[in-house]
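pinging the channel bc i need a second pair of eyes. not urgent but kinda urgent?? the chain im working w is below, pasted from the shared doc
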Amino acid sequence: MTGGRAAGSVEDVFREEHGRLLGMLVRRFGDLDLAEEVASEAIEAALQRWPVDGVPRVPLAWLLTTARRKAVDHLRRDNAYAVRLAIMQAEADILVPASPDPEIDEIPDERLRLFFTCCHPALSIEGQIALTLRCLAGLSTPEVARAFLVGEATMAQRIVRAKRKISDARIPFRVPETHELTSRLPGVLRVVYLIFTEGYAAGMGEELVRVELTDESIRLARILHRLLPAEPEVSGLLALLLLVDARRSARVDAAGELVSLEAQDRRLWDADLIAEGRDLVTSALCRHPPGPYALQAAIAALHDEAADVATTDWEQIVALYDVLFEVSPSPVVQLNRAVAVAMRDGPEAGLAALDALEATALREYHPLPAARADLLRRIGRTDEAAAAYRAALDLVGNERERIFLRRRLAEV
C-alpha cells in the first residue's frame, strides 16, 4: 500500500480503471449486469479501505480480486441466477465454439477485445457504441449523451435497451473470430474516436483536456493499425487523432486557460506527430472512396500545415466538408463547415450557414451559439453577440470553456 496519495487520486484511479475492470469481469463471467454490480461493490469497498490503508500499488488488481470475490458471493446466494448464467455460457459455447485459431486471442489488449465483443451486429450501431462507451470506456451517461447530442434520459434508456437485448437474445460475450473483426470495425472506430473527443474537449469538469482519455484512444488506435494495417479508415482515424493531438500544448496557456486556434503559438505544435499523421492520411486517401475519418484527417492536416489562420486553405477545407457531409451527414459537420465558410467568405456568410442549424439537435450544443457569438462579435453586432455568448454559457459544462466564454462576453 502507498498511504500518501491524496483523496483526489483515488477518484482518478476509479475513473481510469473502471472500464478496464468492467471489461475483465464481463470477459470472466459473461454477464454485463453482474459485472457492473460487483464492480460497483468493489469500488464502494475501496472507498472505505483506501482512505485508511492508502491506494494499493496495483489498484486494478485489488479491485479485480475484490470484485471476483463478490461475484462468487452473488452466485452462491442466488442459485437460480447461477444456473441461468451457467446455461447461457454453455449455450454461448455451442453457438460460438472456441476457435482453434491461435490468432483469436490475438488482439493484444483486454479493453480492445471487449470493444469488439460489445460491438455485436445484433445491436444497432448506436446501441453498440453507447453501451461500449458507458460500460467499458468508463464514460458517464451524461458524457455519452453529449457525444450523441441527445438528452441524458434518452441515452440512459438507449443503454438499458441494449443491455436488455443482450440478455433477452442471449448474445454471448465472446471475442469475435478473426474474419468478423472487419464487420465490427465501424463501431469500434467510433468508440475510440468518441473517447478521444471527450478527452480532447472534456464536456464537464475543471480541466479542458483529459489526457488519460486522449492518450488511451491514441494507444488503442495504434493497436488497431497494427492489427488491420490495410483498413484505410483505421489509418484515417489514427491520422486524425495524431494531427489533432499535435496541437495539445498550444491549446491552453500557462494558467490552463483555453487558447483559440487563431491565437495559438504554432511553434508549440508537435512536428513529429504532424509528420506521422500526414503520412497516414496520404495512405488512407489513396483508397477510394475516402471514409469519414480520412476526410477529417485531411482537414486537420490542412490546419496543421498552415502558418496561421489567415493563410489556411479554407477553400479546400470547405470542399472537404462538402464531401464529408455526403459520406457522413451530421449537424456537427454542418457547423464546422459553416465556420470554415465564414473564414473563406466572411462572417455574414457563416452566419447564414449557421441559421440552418437552429432547428437541429445542435440547439442544446454550446458550440453553436458560441460560433454565432464569435461571428457577430467580428462584425460589431455586440448586443447580439452578448446574447449568443450568454446562451452558450447556459449550455457549457466545462469550466475552462466557461471562463473563455465569459472573457469573450466581457469584451463585447
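so The two ends are 53 Å apart (CA to CA). and The CA atoms of residues 5 and 404 lie 32 Å apart. — does that match what u expected or am i reading it wrong
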